[in-house]
Amino acid sequence: MDKVDLLYKKYDVLASAGDKVSEHESDYLDILDSVKGTPSEKRLASQFIARFFKSFPHLAEKAIDAQLDLCEDGDVAIRKQAIKDLPSFCKDSKEYVPKIADVLAQLLLTEDHTELLVIQHSLVTLVKLDARGTLGGVFSQVVAGEDLVRERAIKFLCTKLPSMGAEVLTKEVEEFLLQECCKVMQDVTGQEFTSLMQLLSGLKLAKTIPGQQALVDLVAEQADLGKPLGESGGAGDASSRPEALAKLVQCIRQALLYFSPYVSSAKFVAHLCQQVLPGQVAADEETLEILKLLAEMAPFASNLSAEDLQTCLKLVFDKLLELMPLPPAGEETENSTDQQHEPELQLSHVECLMYSFHQLAKRNPQFLTADESAERLRDFKLRLQYLARGVQGYIKKLRLALQGKKPAELKTDENKLKVAALKTTSNINVLIRDLFHVPPSFKSAITLSWKPAATNVCP
């Protein structure tokens, strides 16, 4: 009898045996052996092995090994059939989900696009069957697999999980996913970190205060907060600071999504002020990006310790003074109106630093008003007066240049720059009025010039 016909006969015997199917073990063993046969036998074997898998639990390992042989066959058509049938092993035996998911993750190495699609489809089937078990199997390869497997496993998670419904991504599954991501992030590339954080940001837990705090804690660990910048690069490593700074910026951008009056930015603000600001040239373009991040975090640094708050205030204040020149000799009175000297100002940098100072000093007004701060305040007011003169003059010029412009005209690159500059200078002007108040006031709220108008960053 033809071997294919014989396989069909054995299938019929097993299918019609009902409750007594276990008495026909020899027929099932013959089906397992047929994975070594012709292509036609292999394709049938793939379907039949999975069909009767649950009836022979003591042959489970042998059956799975036989199926895996087919998954590694030289014929891509046979591989795809075997891969497609793999999830069937788990329908009534969910304890095998992690192992099958692990195998499927390993198979992501394939260079055949159609085969890759079948693998991904089988993984999706497993996720819907047992999400936690599947994630366990996939993450085992993210942690220990080859680089290409790791890359494709992470890509699978980030592209397929977001479309899963609440019935799949339950609270327990989301918590497990966060736990596994925490393990992986002990050693990730910048792109992997960003991808996994984007995945986590789409979870329901990311909409809760405890979930947001957990994500901020995860980012904080990744950012090496509290450590000197570039410490891991070793002494004398000139590249360590730029690399560490780029990593920190990337981390802060992820954490910014979650800061609020209920999720504090204090650890990040303290780190940025104490470990980064002292080594930055105030007027540098690179520094501007850092200062913008500081300004966006400053309103939410609610639980800075008294010591850290004082330190951060001093560092931000000193950096701000670098960009706020004293008036030239002979103009050191608050009533001077001489317009001969106009200071050259880095207004975008000033906006960031002044706003950060305004937000931090709100929590410790004595920084400017204490008896021992009298000279500091006097010097600061001289600088504020001189800065205000330059800013107000610039505001007048910008308003005049933009006056009467139609909406279409405002969309030119030149006018967009002028509109942005007007927002920046107007913000600085508001802050100056607050700080020039006696005593300094911290009541005004502004929208930072680079933020959408509808979003107010103040808590």
List keywords for this structure.
Apoptosis inhibitor 5/fibroblast growth factor 2-interacting factor 2; mainly alpha; apoptosis; API5; 459 residues; ARM-type_fold; single chain; RNA binding
Any overview of this molecule?
Keywords: Apoptosis. One of its GO terms (cellular component) is nucleus. It comes from Amblyomma americanum. With 459 residues, the protein is an all-alpha fold. The chain has 20 helices and no strands. The chain has helices spanning 3-16, 25-33, 39-51, 60-71, 76-85, 97-107, 113-129, 131-144, 147-160, 171-184, 190-201, 209-222, 240-255, 266-276, 285-297, 306-321, 347-361, 366-369, 374-402, 413-436. It is elongated, with a radius of gyration of 32 Å. 36% of the residues are buried.
